[in-house]
From TrEMBL:
<dbReference type="GO" id="GO:0005504">
    <property type="term" value="F:fatty acid binding"/>
</dbReference>
<protein>
    <recommendedName>
        <fullName>Bifunctional inhibitor/plant lipid transfer protein/seed storage helical domain-containing protein</fullName>
    </recommendedName>
</protein>
<dbReference type="InterPro" id="IPR016140">
    <property type="entry name" value="Bifunc_inhib/LTP/seed_store"/>
</dbReference>
<feature type="domain" description="Bifunctional inhibitor/plant lipid transfer protein/seed storage helical">
    <location>
        <begin position="27"/>
        <end position="107"/>
    </location>
</feature>
<dbReference type="InterPro" id="IPR039265">
    <property type="entry name" value="DIR1-like"/>
</dbReference>
<keyword id="KW-0732">Signal</keyword>
<dbReference type="GO" id="GO:0009627">
    <property type="term" value="P:systemic acquired resistance"/>
</dbReference>
<feature type="signal peptide">
    <location>
        <begin position="1"/>
        <end position="26"/>
    </location>
</feature>
<dbReference type="InterPro" id="IPR036312">
    <property type="entry name" value="Bifun_inhib/LTP/seed_sf"/>
</dbReference>
<dbReference type="Pfam" id="PF14368">
    <property type="entry name" value="LTP_2"/>
</dbReference>
Length: 117
């Protein structure tokens, strides 16, 4: 009887551990993707995110368009540790969707202290 009780408690603890793991690493701003890893997709935007006068490449615009379908994710990527380490200026990065002339960009979306133009 004692062994059966321990097995039951162990099973319950395992279920709780799995549930909390999925919650902690499940649906964030970018779904199950990590914003720091998603930021790597924006490497073509590096110079445009540091210099407001730099041209924005078509590869950059394509990635921004894809990420911009989820404004929360785009925001999380722009403010990610990866972006900061890469020298991205959030004041400039936030202008990239407009500089790409994306008609369906989330105009007015609040991204931390920044607002998408």
């Amino acid at each position: 009887m004692e062994m059966k009780k321990l097995f039951y408690i162990g099973g319950v603890l395992a279920v709780l551990a799995i549930a909390s793991f999925n919650e902690a690493f499940g649906a964030g701003e970018c779904g199950k993707a990590n914003p720091n890893m998603e930021a790597l997709k924006l490497i073509p935007c590096a110079s445009a995110a540091q210099d407001a006068n730099a041209p924005v490449s078509s590869k950059c615009c394509a990635q921004v368009k894809t990420l911009g379908q989820n404004p929360k994710c785009l925001c999380a990527v722009m403010l990610s540790d990866t972006a900061k380490i890469s020298g991205v200026d959030p004041n400039i990065a936030i202008t990239i969707p407009k500089r790409c002339n994306l008609a369906d960009r989330p105009v007015g979306y609040k991204c931390g202290p920044y607002t998408l133009p």
